Amino acid sequence: MRISSFRPGEPVLRTAAALASGVLALSGVPALAEETGGQAAGQASSVGTIEEIIVTAQKREESLQETPIAITAFSTRELETQRVTNVMDLLNKVPSLNLAPFAGTRVVPNLFIRGMGNLNTQTTKDMATGIYIDGVPVGRGIGLAADIADLERVEVLRGPQGTLWGRNTTAGAINFITQKPDDRLSFGAQLTAGSWDLRSGRVKLNVPLTDKLFARASYMRTQNDGWVDNLNTTLPNQINFNEDRRKEALKVALRYEPLEHLTVDYGYDSSKMIFGNHFYQVVDGPTAVAGRQESANRVRGLYPSNTEVSGHNLTVAWDVGGATLKSISAYRELDSQTNMNYIDAFTQDNVQAQHQFSEELQLIGNALHDRIKYATGLFYFDEASHEQLASRFAGGAAVDEFLVTAQSTSKAIYGQATWTPPVLSDRLDLTLGMRYTEDTRKATKTYLRTDLSPAVLRGTVVVGDRDFSSFNPAVTVDYAFADNIRGYAKYTTGYRAGGFSTQSTPAYFGAGFEPEDVKALEVGVKSDLLEKRLRVNLAAFRNKYTDLQVDQARTPPFFADTLNAGSATIKGVELETAAVLARGLTANLFYSWLDGEYQSYVDNGVELAAVRHMPNAPRYQAGAGLEYAFPHTAIGNFVLNVDYRKQAEFYAGPIANTLSPGYDVWNARLQLADIPAGVGSLRVALWGKNLSDEVYRLSTTNLGLISAQFGPPRSVGVDMIYEF
Question: Domain of 71: which CATH number?
Answer without folding.
Answer: 2.40.170.20
